[in-house]
Amino acid sequence: MAWDTARTQQLLLDAAVEEFAEFGPDGARIARVAARAGVNKERIYQYFGNKEQLFGAVLASELGKLAEAVPIAAVPGAGLGDFAGRVFDYHSANPHFSRLLAWEGLQRGTEAEELAAEPERTAHYGEKVAAVAAAQKAGELTEDVDPGRLMFAVIGLVNAWFTLPQMVRLLLSGATDPAADREAVVTLVRRLTGPAPH
Question: Are residues 87 and 70 in contact, defined by beta-carbon separation less than 8 angstroms?
Fold first, then answer.
């Protein structure tokens, strides 16, 4: 029987997502990834290289899924609140993604070395910033904040609901309501990013 390379790589990526989301890039173990996937760990080195490269492959794959599910180009500037709502929905359905980003930020974010898949991710986020800049130029979004910082604020606001669950619990007395949380994010992004009234 022929070896199904693509299937094996996907099994390893899926297992690595779980491992990295739970333990972070420093705490993750190649042996556990292999065991979760039911694949010999030598395949990880063969297909992905070392643990850092596997983490990079996981982030690139997960970022690609988000970009495909929620393309910003399809959202006009005035709809940035709706974009935030769709990103919120994605994170609700895929909580591991926020965890991966949080782990990376905690364990890699301030280091001088290149981030996992940094050139591709820089290009991806560059497209988002360009879309925001175009919407600002068209008068659809506030020009009070430069486009990169505005996009960062939107991403940060959405991600905070998933990376700071303890604050949600403390501030809302444990009475979380996903629909109300989503509506709050959408409303806040619309108010924060909308053009100044004339």
Answer: yes
